[in-house]
Amino acid sequence: MTLQGSSVTQCSSSILAQNVTPVSEFQLLSFSEDPDLQPVLFGLFLSMYLVTVLGNLLIILAISSDPHLHTPMYFFLSNLALTDIGAISTTVPNMIVNIQTHNELISYVGCMTQMSLFAIFVCMDYMLLTVMAYDRFVAICHPLHYTVIMNPRLCGFSILVSFLLSLLDSQLHNLMILQITNFKNVEISSFFCDPSVLLNLSCTDTYSNNIGKYFLVAVYGFLPISGILFSYYKIMSSLLRIPSLGGKYKAFSTCGSHLAGVCLFLGTGSAVYLGSAASHSPRNGAAASVMYTVVTPMLNPFIYSLRNRDIKSALSRLQRWTV
């Protein structure tokens, strides 16, 4: 089954696995067929990509060059910035090239590679937000023991575990999709190879795939968000015991950026996966995917720098050093 034949293949119970031709390529969703809009879209997404990469690189440089920012909170933030660069770099450059060349085809191998890298980086993003919530919990609820609990060994171990869990998530998605021998369609209703979209294209709903889906939802959905909610529950409980309003604001101000980042990440992510289940419009799903994969990484540097005096001071010192 290839695009040279028919772009749509209906699922049929009479199709035998040994007679199914492996998919050689997929067709990604085009944002617009209007030639006049192509240069606008090209410029828009190229600008967003450059802003994202530059903003996150500045965060990494500011943190690494300032000894005052060599703390667990900023260590995790620099890793989050690096992950955001990786996440947007797996999807947007290919989309920009497709817009410029008017070619939305992607090979099967290229699609699997893009899907694997995207799953790693997005899951890593989620895990880092969870670890950062725990870091804020320790800083506010156990300030006297913060340096002992959040020691360099624990910080490094947290990054390693987050990466290994992300890699496992990617490989499980790979395993489930590689088991698909017949697809309903070779047209992907997204501008990149989204794992959830590819799984929905399967003509068969195997027992192992169902087990894999439930496992991924439980481990990578329920557990991290439970950890974030528990951390903020303990944080709010601790803040209520602070007598002065100024003390409450000062303590909570260290959580404001992280909380905004969590809401942005989970909000746009939920819009993609819940919205795609409720709506049958590929355009609506693509718009939500842009928010999730492009806008969120672009806004993170602003969220974590505009409200953070330490980051702004480090950026100012970095600017004076480079001039």
Description:
This protein has helices at 38-65, 72-89, 92-101, 108-141, 146-149, 152-178, 195-200, 207-240, 245-278, 282-306, 309-322, and strands spanning 25-27, 105-107. With 323 residues, the chain is an all-alpha fold. Helix 1 packs across helix 11 (309-322), helix 4 runs antiparallel to helix 6 and helix 6 (152-178) runs antiparallel to helix 8 (207-240). Mean pLDDT is 81; it is low at 1-9 and 13-20.
Approximate shape: globular
Termini gap: 58 Å
Helix content: over 70%
| Computed Rg | 22 Å
Let me know the number of strands: 2
Please provide the ordered H/E string of secondary-structure elements.
EHHHEHHHHHHHH
Average pLDDT confidence is: 81
What proportion of the residues form beta strands (DSSP E)? under 5%
Structural class, by secondary structure, is mainly alpha
Largest sheet: 2 strands, antiparallel
Properties at a glance:
323 residues, mainly alpha, two-stranded antiparallel sheet, 2 strands, globular, disordered N terminus
Strand and helix map with partners:
Layout: E1 25-27, H1 38-65, H2 72-89, H3 92-101, E2 105-107, H4 108-141, H5 146-149, H6 152-178, H7 195-200, H8 207-240, H9 245-278, H10 282-306, H11 309-322
Antiparallel strand pairs: 1-2
Helix pairs in contact: 1-2, 1-3, 1-10, 1-11, 2-4, 2-10, 4-6, 4-8, 4-9, 6-8, 9-10
